[in-house]
Amino acid sequence: xxxxxxxxxxxxxxxxxxxxxxxxxxxxxxxxxxxxxxxxxxxxxxxxxxxxxxxxxxxxxxxxxxxxxxxxxxxxxxxxxxxxxxxxxxxxxxxxxxxxxxxxxxxxxxxxxxxx
Amino acid sequence: xxxxxxxxxxxxxxxxxxxxxxxxxxxxxxxxxxxxxxxxxxxxxxxxxxxxxxxxxxxxxxxxxxxxxxxxxxxxxxxxxxxxxxxxxxxxxxxxxxxxxxxxxxxxxxxxxxxxxxxxxxxxxxxxxxxxxxxxxxxxxxxxxxxxxxxxxxxxxxxxxxxxxxxxxxxxxxxxxxxxxxxxxxxxxxxxxxxxxxxxxxxxxxxxxxxxxxxxxxxxxxxxxxxxxxxxxxxxxxxxxxxxxxxxxxxxxxxxxxxxxxxxxxxxxxxxxxxxxxx
Lengths: 116, 279
Description:
The complex is a heterodimer. Chain A is mostly helical.
């Protein structure tokens, strides 16, 4: 009898827990913002960064679908992936620009030194 | 009833066995490898904070794997951990590039400053040299004015030496008495009239055949030129030409006028002046 009540309680707890996983609204906004920043940083113009940006967009779309299906927890994790991919795209785009700037400055320094 | 009581433990043990037997997902394997690489790379120095965040994420993935290696959560955590390690590496690359650019810019500024300083020094030196050259030229002019009659016209500075001081009648060999005056002229000219060309011009009076007078004046101009070159006036800067009876400076009808017309003029041309003929 006691075992029966424990099982019922466990199922009830699980049902409450599953149903109560909040919609990942904040995470959704965060991920969308990161994707937007990545686009502003020109990630699409950099092949490596664009790969991560594309993944982020796909994951964002998947997350929206999961939310629509009521699977908030999976959606939350999918959004974490999207955010991580978008942030990596941003950093790669920034690093690429910094590389170009550094190479340009180094070339200028070399030219000047040769002329000097 | 007893067997039913034991069943959960048997199932649990089977589950644990199954979990421990499940190999880590590719995401976790990749994240571990990337972390090992980052710990030994530049990210350890350049992006320690981000690398620490990645380590925490990898720990979460490992905990999920310890619970259920094949679960979506394990894969998700590992995937995110991998990206965070890569983010730390990208941050490190950004820091390195930014530092390189700053160093190069500093080098550019330093080199430009050195070049500007050198240019200013060279400019000052050039100004000094020009001022010195001008002073020397003025000194030379003053010296020449003391030695002989000088004037300036469109040809340049004209130093006039009377023919009777330099040559005997109808001769083109310099008199011994001419040496002193020509030595003074040579001293004034050499090294003090940088960049200026000199033409020794010979003239006669109007008596005698024109061709003869041109030939005599040419030979006399040549003699003076040779003497001056022998005294150190650069040969490539001085030429000679005989003009015969041309350009008289006095009346050929009088003996005094003819004496004045028999002369040698040393023309110091302006810097952009050219020599009409060279000997």
